[in-house]
Structure formats: structure tokens, C-alpha cells
Design a protein that fits this description.
This protein is an alpha/beta fold. About 35% of the residues lie in helices and about 15% in strands. The chain is built from 9 helices and 8 strands. It has helices spanning about 20-30, 60-70, 85-90, 105-110, 120-130, 150-160, 180-190, 225-245, 270-280; strands at about 35-40, 70-75, 100, 140, 165-170, 195-200, 215-225, 250-255. The two termini are about 25 Å apart.
């Protein structure tokens, strides 16, 4: 993900904002419920994208990936809505506790821009629900030029969206974030429709670090900068996730966007170790096997 990247990240204040009291109060409603689940992964699982990760001779990349990570931010479905047959193939090639987070196709978000998309949405949902217990949360990312003037269209879309299908949503245009009234109206709609507000942690768009959670689920897309800076950033995320868990958060989907080459270590490795230590998780710790 190149969105929000800057030439000199050392000039950016990467500190995370304080959690609004409204979010803590909202999460407290779920505090008595048992269970907490955290899912960590990358946007793709192919050898071309995760250079140096797979042991030499690995034939089933997805199977191996699912044993090293417990989730994938599945960007492959952005370009083509999957068939039911393909979804079942993917599902059956992964470990038992694995989660797919399929990205809705660009024909819905970018080309149709939520206009007359009911049939396309139905086809996507009908296929991806076959992930069954391995369906994490589908998500929609709108183009950067999708502005609040289309609010009524967004409202109609979310009101018609199939009930019971877990959905996260991302808007990018600055106008959604730099006007408090607009932002509150947007977040109120997400909460009303049980839609998770996607949090994007990227250098050039700190306004998208909005911690007004709309469901008891945190969906975070993390965009890398440099190893030194990112280790500090991820350590701060461990503290934040721990705070939210103690308040009542039920699920986390955390996806790391970083450029991978044979010499670059996975940012997720130390991050997962710290999550396991601080939150008592038992997440798999992925490391490169082939250089």
C-alpha cells in the first residue's frame, strides 16, 4: 500500500492518539462477554510478494502461509469477484484457525462507486460466505476521490447491505476527517449498520487514526516506513490493543503493509512476540526460512 507514504518519515509524529472516552464506554458494554481473538497477517501470500519467506521447494504457498500467520488481508479479490468453487479451494488449503478478510471488488467501490451494486454485492457475499468459520471480515476501501457529498449513496448502500455478513469500511478523502460534524455523521452510520471503522496507520494521513470504534472489532491497516521507526510504532500498538482488550474489545485484525525483499525481516515477527507476551496470546511467530 503506497497510500499516505512520505519521502522523509523521520519528520512525522507517529505517536498514537489517546483513546476517546466514548470508545472506552462503548467497549465496556462487551466487557462481560468471554473471548478475545487477534488476527495478524499480510495483504497477500504469494512468493512474489513475500520474497525469501517460503522454504525452497514449497509447492502450496497458501497452506504454508496459513501455518505461519492466522489471517490474510485478501487483496486478490479486489480485482475479481471469486467463484464459489475457488473460495472452497482456498478454504480447504488452510489451517483450521485461519481467517480470510476478502476485499470487495473494485467494480463495487471504484467503478460503480456504490451505485446499482446490489447484484454485485450479492454475488460476492454468496461466494465468500463459503469460507464459513474461516471468514474473518470482508472490507470495502473507497477511492480517494469519494467525498462526503455522496453520503446518501453510502447510507443507502450500508442499509441494504446483507445483514449478518461482517463488514469493515474505509473512506480516504480528507473531507471525511477534517470536519467534526461530517466525521460524527459517518461514524454514527457505521455504528447503526454494525460496520467496523477501518483504522489506517500510514505516515502522510495521521487523520485516519480515528479511534472512535463502531463495533467491538478493530481493523487496522499498518503501512511501513523504516525498520527502526516501525518497531517503535508497532510496540505502541501492542499497548493500545491491550488497553482496548481490557476495555472490552472482542477481535483485532491487524495487517502489515511492507515491501518485502530477501534481506528485509518481517515486521510482524517482533510485534507478534510482544503481543504474545503482553496479552497472553499464542499467535504463530513467522520467520523467513529461505534467503
Amino acid at each position: 500500500m503506497k497510500f499516505g507514504k512520505v519521502e522523509d518519515p523521520s519528520q512525522i509524529d507517529f505517536s498514537l492518539p489517546e483513546t476517546p472516552k466514548e470508545t472506552i464506554q462503548f467497549l465496556n458494554q462487551y466487557k462481560s462477554d468471554e473471548g478475545f481473538e487477534i488476527n495478524i497477517g499480510y495483504p497477500k501470500w504469494s512468493k512474489a510478494d513475500l520474497k525469501g519467506f517460503y522454504p525452497r521447494g514449497t509447492k502450496d504457498e497458501l497452506r504454508y502461509y496459513s501455518e505461519e500467520f492466522n489471517s490474510v488481508e485478501f487483496n486478490g479479490t479486489f480485482y475479481r469477484s471469486p467463484s464459489k468453487e475457488q473460495v472452497l479451494i482456498w478454504k480447504n488449503r488452510t489451517s483450521d484457525d485461519f481467517k480470510f478478510c476478502p476485499k470487495f471488488t473494485n467494480s463495487i467501490s471504484h467503478y460503480s462507486r456504490l451505485n446499482n451494486t446490489d447484484e454485485k454485492v450479492a454475488a460476492f457475499v454468496d461466494s465468500t460466505v463459503l469460507f464459513e468459520e474461516k471468514l474473518g471480515m470482508g472490507f470495502i476501501q473507497m477511492p480517494e476521490n469519494f467525498r462526503p457529498k455522496a453520503f446518501d449513496r453510502l447510507e443507502g448502500f450500508l442499509n441494504r447491505f446483507p445483514k449478518g455478513y461482517p463488514l469493515a469500511f474505509e473512506v480516504r478523502h480528507e473531507e471525511w476527517y477534517n470536519d467534526e460534524q461530517t466525521l460524527n455523521k459517518y461514524l454514527k452510520l457505521l455504528k447503526k449498520t454494525n460496520t467496523t471503522n477501518i483504522i489506517v496507520d500510514t505516515p502522510g494521513r495521521r487523520d485516519m487514526l480515528n479511534f472512535q470504534l463502531t463495533t467491538p472489532v478493530a481493523f487496522i491497516r499498518f503501512v511501513s516506513t523504516t525498520d527502526v521507526i516501525d518497531k517503535l510504532r508497532l510496540s505502541e500498538w501492542v499497548t493500545k490493543i491491550k488497553e482496548w482488550k481490557e476495555a472490552g474489545l472482542k477481535q483485532v485484525y491487524f495487517f502489515v503493509h511492507q515491501k518485502i525483499d530477501p534481506e528485509t525481516p518481517f515486521l510482524s515477527t517482533e510485534f507478534v512476540k510482544e503481543l504474545n507476551e503482553q496479552l497472553g496470546c499464542k499467535l504463530p511467530i513467522a520467520q523467513k526460512k529461505a534467503l
